Amino acid sequence: MAKVNVSLPQGTRDFGADVVRKRNYIFSTIKTVFEVYGFEPLETPAMENLDTLMGKYGEEGDKLIFKILNNGLDRPEKHAVARTEFEKVLQGKNTSGITERALKYDLTIPFARYVAMNHNQLTMPFKRFQVQPVWRADRPQKGRYREFYQCDADVVGSYSLLNEVELANIYATVFAKLGIEVEIKINSRKILAALAEVCGGADKMVDITIAIDKLDKIGLEKVKEELLQRGMNNQQIAVIEQYLSISGSNDEKLAAVINLIGENETGKKGIEEIKTVLELSRITQNSSLVIDFTLARGLNYYTGIIFEVKAKNVQMGSIGGGGRYDDLTGLFGVPNIPGVGISFGVDRIYDVMEELKLFPSGVHSGTKVLFFNLGDAESKKAFELMQQLRSKGISCELYHENVKFDKQFKYAEKKQIPFVVIIGTKELETNTCNVKDLQAGAQQTISFDELLNRFA
Question: Mapping DSSP to helix (H, G, I), strand (E, B) and coil, where does residue 340 land?
Fold first, then answer.
């Protein structure tokens, strides 16, 4: 048999037991907070119709959508058609002849599609959370994968800024529970729209936000070069540079942006929204919110307040983000359903917690008790006791064969099982067992009845 080169697709990973337990700890923490705030779970398919996704994420995002080839393209009669259609795809065009579906890029657009299809049956405002994998044809690097999980919470059917405050509080609560110090950045797309209007018109909005969104990656000078390539003149670029240079406390930043675009009506609305969210967040004692006017969130569907979360004390991209999208369902023929949502980047959160050693020791635990196998009669009694412990929720195993103590001890040590129970011939006669704490090195002999309450 020829040797097979076994590997994984780039940007994907396997997860062993230790990693899965840690990830589940993160999922559980986030879900618990979502439900405390009244959000309900939802799941949508891994794939969507291509038309559902394309054109919703901006020029850059659309390039990262994983398209799925149609069935039957391997049949001989389809070869000529497939070649012609594939040439169109290589030219950046979309064609139903070769692909009609795609893996979902995020959870927000599928959620909007769900709301558009079911809005007559939903109780508004509708609050949902969703925890599922998404896929992006990105270049893999630290903290960036092609398959990764998102945890989203969204509210649709309400214009109230209380929703933004609650979502910011969810961020603060989750990260406090996980032990991660964060900065929750806040801006408004209305302020960015005002900047575009000041710089020549609303049609400049997309060009400006796409360039600004790259600021952390390429720096100010490269952003200015890109703006120049996108048709901005030197005077307009100077205004944008002044905007990007705003710094100081939240109050100082607000004063500076009012001075720059405060006469613009769209800008006034955006500034008032940020002021309201900051004021209400102070009441709820959320001190993590920081104004960042360089925050753009390059996705076209955002219309108001936008968020991005960065972890302190570690070099990592954003570990959360979101914002308001007041007509997202309008993309699917159902206008005037406002919405706002946030997303947690679980994979990056995991990497942050690993680097900062924030996972509690209990997360690593699997099997709590290993029963040694010392013969047929002994193992039968061990099996009986093990099942009784399992009925109490105690995780147990019986070693699969009667071998030397040393091998069974090594198995317990490798699996980090904290306790072993040893039942030999003498113990069977006296209805007792030896319980050894492998961490403390202590051993005691107790009755079978005592054993059943030993780990409760």
Answer: strand
